[in-house]
Amino acid sequence: MPLRWGTYCAYEKHFIEMRRRQLKLLWTQIQKTLTGINWKMFEINPVRLWYICYVYANDLKPIRKFHTIEGGCDRSRRAALLARLISKHRPIELKDSFAEMEEIGIPDTGDKQNARRLKVNEIFALYAIFFFQKINMPQEAYEKNKVVQKISEELLFIFTHRDPQIEQLVVIARLLKSASDGGGGAA
Length: 187
Fold this sequence. Notes:
Largest sheet: 2 strands, antiparallel
Structural class: mainly alpha
Strand content: under 5%
Distance between the termini: 45 Å
Number of domains: 1
């Protein structure tokens, strides 16, 4: 297994393809889960999605090298890596249609649906942290644990207004996992 940036063995190519498919599946789940949004006005950019998956595979190389080739890293780190790349490279795009653009309206209307539409990539990044750590999707988790809801709100803020650093996201992802497993208590 090559551990140099930009070189891929058959296993890594398969791994990249699997991540791409999983992200597309996650995007489909988000569309089904979050109601009240005209999802037809958004599309996933296949080039950006491939790029995210290739960078993700490359980002794992030094981690695998440090922990030995067989070791790799845990789900929280993997989820954090993907979420950061989604937040940074923004693979979900608004289709180029004036009618659909008009539906969004002015961002400061106070409409919660508009706020969601404008943060679609940030929501995608948040869902990736849940999905790749095998945590119930946010709405289900919120009902069970207010700490999970608070952590999710902080993550959305970070994805929206900050440049999230990977170690910061790893710690938050681990905290989110712990809280969702019942180790978070009540807020």
